[in-house]
Amino acid sequence: MIKKLATLFILFGLLTANAQQPGEDEMGAWYMYFGTNKVSERFSIHTEAQFRFYESTSNFNQMLLRTGLNYHINPNAIATAGYGYIDTDNTYFELEGEINSKEHRIFEQFILKNKVWEFLFEHRYRLEQRFLDFGETTETQHRARYRIQMTLPLTNTFFLNFYDELFINLQDDLFGQNRLYGAVGIHISENSSVQLGYLRNQFANAVYNRLQFGVFYNPDLRGLFKKKKP
User: Fold this and answer.
1) Residue 64 maps to a domain
2) Of the N and C termini of the chain, which has fewer Cβ atoms inside 10 Å?
3) Distance CA 40, CA 70 (A)
4) pLDDT-based confidence at 198, cuts 50/70/90?
């Protein structure tokens, strides 16, 4: 495990040194945790925490906390309903005049999975109802998202992960943003992995580069909910 983590941090250093920086003078970073925990044959709980920075370890941008209840229709189809809380700080020097916001978000999503040769594909369709609080004003927005993700196993330990996600506003300007992502992943154990990647986040008038470090931990919790025999 130590060798795997050492390899990951070496890759992290190389990405920091060589990544291009259009749209901002500094390279930002997202640090993320994701969990999917089975509680029954059909249901699991999604947990997620993200901490985003305008620079790699400073100038806080956003905290995102999200949870949801997954219904596993079959091994390749999952429906989810959930809630997210987002705290955003827009006071970075490139965004002078912007104000901070807090957001309560409800979302519904549907995931389909399939395999083509060795490539594992995942299609994620998501609707979001966003309730934003800017302090003196509030606003409600609606948004649709579609993400296509491809995972390619390299060995039993290493894999590659890529995705492209399009955000569509359901009011005002149609185009919201597009996220293009590529990462190297390492399986730490049967139910845990880490990913080190690069995200190109494109808006209508700006492009931002973000390093991403993600931890995925998916222990099966069904044993906790089994009824004990008398």
Assistant:
1) yes
2) C
3) 11
4) very high
For residue 27, give the CATH number of its domain: 2.40.160.40
Count of C-beta atoms within a 10 Å radius of residue 186: 20
Q: Which residues pair with 105 in a beta bridge?
A: 84, 130
* Per-residue pLDDT tens digits for 50-73: 999 988 878 888 999 999 999 999
CA distance 63 to 50: 6
- Measured CA to CA, the distance from residue 158 to residue 214 in angstroms comes to 15
- Give the strand pairing for 207-217 and 28-38: parallel
Structure confidence at residue 174 (pLDDT): 95
Q: What's the domain count of the chain?
A: 1
Q: Write down the pTM of the prediction.
A: 0.85
* Residue 228, in any domain of the structure: no
In degrees and rounded to multiples of 5, residue 184 shows phi and psi of -105, 130
